[in-house]
Every structure is written in structure tokens, then in C-alpha cells.
């Protein structure tokens, strides 16, 4: 009986093996996406549309950002049968600078416990916001605001402006009114510069302002303090016509430097005569000095004119 049982078992195994080798194999079509690469323009943002061929999969399991391992949520994209739309709200958060790359892995459920993936690579392009010019002068003598044009690129607003000691912040925050931007113009207020550079010794100093935009890389604006500490007159030599009628004022233009007014005008005549000129004999209007002919005729008499005398004046600011 043992021998018969062994023979029957061997025949059964042969039959079973024959059935395995002759069973038909069903081909599975792999899923795919189109395109597999795309460009996201930060200057003119738009949704990215992906076509999906589900093939033999049972559906899309998820989409994973392999850069940080997060899985996209339902608010990040919309699926319309075989068309998937990636929303700008997600793309703008993931791509914030030109030249960045976003790799999205589309994971598909396959028959059995299997996942098949396809990769979509998105590269960002765009123009960083900046200011023009990025280097300007501020006059210590004439003061005033500093302005620069804003080229927004894909930026939309200025978040803050910082300097080397943290004095500049958003408009309306302490210290207030240091800067404003109106459309495409950035204005840094005079009060910031007068506070930073209060004395003439600050002439030739400079500061680099770091401008932070809501999107894109920061821009810089370098401001240099220029000016003159010592006052001066121009021209230094004036010819006055003694015989002209009516006689004219002598005028000169004042460059104030570190000063703002004249407290005396002195005459230096030959030989070494020094006297003050009364305020009724001269005046100052803005940056122009006037010496009146009423005084000139008293000192430049006929004898001095005939002998070619030159009168020297000292203006004390």
C-alpha cells in the first residue's frame, strides 16, 4: 500500500505543475503624466495643468513634495478625471525665488500592495524686485529726502527697511515716518538722515539700507553723505564799475557748508585797514550776498580808482 500511495502522489504533482506553466499572463499598463517638467513664472503666475493616464492603476494615492516630504492636500490641486490642476496658491508658497526647483512625486495605487510613481519637476523663473539707482548721495548742506524708483518684478510690497543699527522699520512704527513707498517710488525721509548725520564731521559717511520685499531677494540702497563743511563765496573776484549809472550792487553766491547765516562782513583795504561794514551796507537773500553801492562809493573814491586799488572783503559766517 505504501508503494501505490507514492505513485499516485507523484502523478498529482505533475498535473499541478502543468497547470501553472500554461496559465495566461495579463499585461498591466503603467500610469504616466504629461508633462514631466514645467516652468513657473513668478512675474506672471498661472496654474500648472498635468494630464494623467491612469493605465492599470486603481487611482492616484497621493502627490508628495519630495523636497520636504509633505503630501499635498485637497486645497493644493484639483483633479478632473484625467486632468490635474496645481493651484497657484500652493505653487507660490513652494516657489518664492527664481531658479528654485519643486519635485512632485505622483504615487499611483497598483493591483496588489504596490505603488508606482511618476515625477514632475517644476522650475521657477522671474525677476527679483530692486531699486534704481541703488547708490545715491544725500547733501548734508541742503538736506532733503532721498528717492529711488522701485522695479517690482514679482514683488508687490516692501515689508521693512533695515540699516546697520536697526533704525529703519515699517512705516508708522517707531521711529515713525522714516520711509514711504508710493506706487513705484521709494522715499527715505530727511529726518532719518539728519538724525544719523547731525554734524559736518559725518560728511563722507555712508549707509547701506537693506530693503525686504514680500517676495524675492532683498535689495540694497547705499546712501553717501556729501557736502562742504567750510562756507565759500563765488566768484572770489568781482569787477565793479565805478562810473556806471545807475551804480550796481556787488553780488556773490554763498555755499554755506556747515553754516546757515552771516554775522559780519569786514573790509580788508590797503594798507591793513580793518573795519566792519554795517548791515545797512549789505544784505543776504537766501544764498546771495549783496554789497550796496552806497558803501562802495565811500571807500572806492577817485584817488583809489586812479591808482588801481583792490578792495578785499571778509565774510564771516
Write a structural description.
The protein has 317 residues and is mainly beta. It has 3 domains: 32-125, Sandwich (Immunoglobulin-like), CATH 2.60.40; 130-226, Sandwich (Immunoglobulin-like); 232-316. The protein has helices at residues 2-21, 88-94, 190-196, 293-299, 302-306; strands at 32-34, 37-41, 48-53, 59-65, 70-71, 77-80, 83-86, 101-110, 114-125, 130-132, 135-139, 146-151, 158-162, 179-182, 185-188, 206-213, 219-226, 232-234, 250-255, 264-269, 273-276, 282-285, 288-291, 312-316. Strands 2-9-8-4-5 form a 5-stranded mixed sheet, with no helix packed on it.
For this entry, give a set of tags.
317 residues; mainly beta; Immunoglobulin-like; 5 helices; 15% helix; 40% strand; rod-shaped; disordered N terminus
Question: What gyration radius follows from the Cα positions, in whole Å?
Answer: 42 Å
Order of helices and strands: HEEEEEEEHEEEEEEEEHEEEEEEEEHHE
The CATH architecture of the largest domain can be named as Sandwich
Portion of residues in beta strands equals 35-45%
- In total, the number of strands is 24
Domain tally: 3
Find the structural class using helix and strand composition.
mainly beta
Mean pLDDT: 83
**CATH class assignment of the largest domain:** Mainly Beta
Shape descriptor reads rod-shaped
Biggest sheet: strands side by side, in what order? 2-9-8-4-5
User: Main β-sheet: number of strands, strand sense, barrel status?
Assistant: 5 strands, mixed
Individual helix count: 5
Distance between the termini: 137 Å
